[in-house]
Structure formats: structure tokens, C-alpha cells
């Protein structure tokens, strides 16, 4: 029997451990629980390194968000595994009360800045780090906007936390068959949100296409966070010329600040310039 490896990520310890234990009662399911985004990424990374990749990630939509802002009640380092039909818990590298193995490092975990990531941010990080893992977001309430954002980030489903275990297991098995699962009540709202997002992206792409090649290079430098002087040095231009290019970029994009230009560029799929290399050699002919 092919086994399904599931990772539950929730900073409410009772919920995470109870759900993991319930899922582990299934004959073909192995489960682990993690208390934060970085802990989850370390668990995924370790599983891949040991040849035991996780198949499905169940992540709290509100991961890391508490009413008093005091941080997650489930220790950020906590990782607990449940295996076999009886769902017996086994601590992973220190368990709930100990630290996670310090030798496990990974760029995706660092990108989440400790425990500062919400569930949807984690979905995007997992998609980048391990695209083969299917992610399902567990939510306390229906929210078409956030559900659409989760799907755009790479989630395969959005499920209410108060759904039945039978329903959740059906979703887990469904996403492994490349299905996408949403509550029927959210479907219309999510489609509306996705259509609107695509419309905004199309308009942003049209505006970016109006830029000259040189202006697009300047825009990529802006996306990378470079200031006028740094852009001038990289493109072998005078600061005055760079200022003119930046003003032209803002005017053509119809925005009034660098921050707004960067946001529009990202919607259009424009990434930052590679800071490790040169954009153009001295004497280049970009206009």
C-alpha cells in the first residue's frame, strides 16, 4: 500500500497534534506536525534529504497570527511525527520542548524570517522549494480574496477547519490526483478575484511593454532596490540621465512613486536585476 506523508503546520499545539493523530489513524497515512513556517520548511528539507518526501502540507491560513501579537503558542521550533495506524507521537530532533537540529539550513526558511510568515506566504515558499508537495490551506472562515491569493501562491485547496475528517481525507487524496478543492460557497468569489487579478496583471504588462529596453533595465534595478547612484554605476550612465529614465518610467506606468512602480512591475512579472552580474557592458547599445 502506497503511504501518504502529510505535514500539519499550525501554531496552536492542541489543534495540530490532535489533527495529526487523527490522520495517522488511517492505515496509509504518516503524519508530522510543525509549529511554524520555518520549522515546516526544515521538516520538508530533512524529509527530502532522507528520501522520505512529504506529499501534502496542511497549513493554517492564519499561521503566526495571534490576537495579542505575542507570537505562536506552539513553539516555533516544534516538530512532532505520528506514524502507523495507532498514531503514536515521536519527537523529531528535540520534539516539542527542544530545539530543532541546528545543522539543517535552507534559504526558504531564512526567507520567512523566523516565525514572521503567514500561511499563504508559506504556500509560496513551499512551491518554490519543493513544487511536488501539494498544499491545502485550513481556514477558520471563508474568505474569497485570501483563498484566491492562496491558489495563486500554489495551493491546491482551501478547507474549513470545522470540516469533517472524512472530508479532509477526501481533499488530501484528491489533491494528490491533481484536483483543486474549494468550498462551493467560495467558488464564485474566488473566480471573481482571479479574474480581477488577471485583468490587473494584463494592464500592468501592457504598461511595462511601453517602456524602452533601457527603461525596462532601469525598472528592474528599481525592483532590486537600487538607488539612483547605484543604477548609474551599473548602467554606466550619469545620475542625471538615470533620474530622467526613472521619471520616464513613472510617467509611462502612470504612477507617482518608486514603490508604486515596483508593485506594478511585480504584477507584470518583472523581476529584479541580477545583482551578481552586470546588466550591460561598457559601451552597450541599449537605448
Distance between the termini: 62 Å
Which percent band covers the strand fraction? Answer: 5-15%
Number of helices: 11
Oligomer: single chain
Give me the Rg, rounded: 22 Å
Tell me about this structure.
Helix 5 (144-153) packs across helix 7 (184-209) and helix 8 (213-223) packs across helix 11 (258-267). The protein is an alpha/beta fold. A seven-stranded mixed β-sheet has the order 5-4-2-1-3-6-7, with helices on both faces. It is elongated, with a radius of gyration of 22 Å. The relative contact order is 0.10. It has eleven helices and seven strands.
Secondary-structure map with pairings?
Layout: E1 4-9, H1 13-24, E2 29-34, H2 37-49, E3 56-60, E4 79-83, E5 88-91, H3 107-111, H4 119-129, E6 134-139, H5 144-153, E7 157-160, H6 165-175, H7 184-209, H8 213-223, H9 228-235, H10 239-253, H11 258-267
Parallel strand pairs: 1-2, 1-3, 3-6, 6-7
Antiparallel strand pairs: 2-4, 4-5
Key descriptive features of the protein:
287 residues; alpha/beta; 46% helix
Brief sketch in words of this structure:
This protein is an alpha/beta fold and 287 residues long. The chain has helices at 13-24, 37-49, 107-111, 119-129, 144-153, 165-175, 184-209, 213-223, 228-235, 239-253, 258-267; strands at 4-9, 29-34, 56-60, 79-83, 88-91, 134-139, 157-160.
Amino acid at each position: 500500500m502506497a503511504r501518504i506523508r502529510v505535514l500539519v503546520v499550525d501554531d496552536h499545539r492542541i489543534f495540530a497534534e490532535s489533527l495529526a493523530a487523527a490522520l495517522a489513524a488511517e492505515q496509509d497515512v504518516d503524519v508530522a506536525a510543525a509549529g511554524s513556517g520555518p520549522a515546516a520548511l526544515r521538516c520538508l528539507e530533512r524529509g527530502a534529504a532522507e528520501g522520505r518526501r512529504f506529499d501534502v502540507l496542511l497549513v493554517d491560513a492564519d499561521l503566526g497570527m495571534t490576537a495579542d501579537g505575542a507570537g505562536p503558542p506552539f513553539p516555533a521550533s516544534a516538530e512532532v511525527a505520528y506514524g502507523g495506524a495507532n498514531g503514536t507521537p515521536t519527537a523529531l530532533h528535540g520534539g516539542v520542548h527542544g530545539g530543532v537540529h541546528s545543522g539543517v539550513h535552507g534559504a526558504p526558511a531564512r526567507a520567512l524570517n523566523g516565525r514572521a510568515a503567514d500561511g499563504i506566504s508559506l504556500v509560496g515558499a513551499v512551491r518554490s522549494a519543493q513544487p511536488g508537495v501539494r498544499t491545502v490551506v485550513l481556514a477558520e472562515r471563508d474568505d474569497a480574496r485570501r483563498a484566491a491569493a492562496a491558489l495563486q501562491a500554489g495551493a491546491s485547496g482551501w478547507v474549513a477547519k470545522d470540516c469533517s475528517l472524512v472530508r479532509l481525507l477526501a481533499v488530501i487524496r484528491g489533491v494528490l490526483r491533481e484536483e483543486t478543492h474549494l468550498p462551493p460557497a467560495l467558488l464564485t468569489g474566488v473566480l471573481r478575484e482571479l479574474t480581477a487579478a488577471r485583468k490587473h496583471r494584463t494592464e500592468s504588462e501592457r504598461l511595462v511593454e511601453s517602456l524602452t529596453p533601457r527603461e525596462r533595465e532601469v525598472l528592474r534595478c528599481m525592483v532590486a532596490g537600487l538607488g539612483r547612484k547605484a543604477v548609474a554605476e551599473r548602467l554606466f550612465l550619469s545620475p542625471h540621465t538615470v533620474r530622467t529614465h526613472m521619471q520616464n518610467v513613472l510617467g509611462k506606468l502612470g504612477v507617482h512613486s518608486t514603490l508604486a512602480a515596483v508593485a506594478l512591475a511585480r504584477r507584470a512579472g518583472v523581476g529584479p536585476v541580477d545583482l551578481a552580474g552586470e546588466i550591460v557592458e561598457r559601451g552597450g547599445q541599449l537605448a
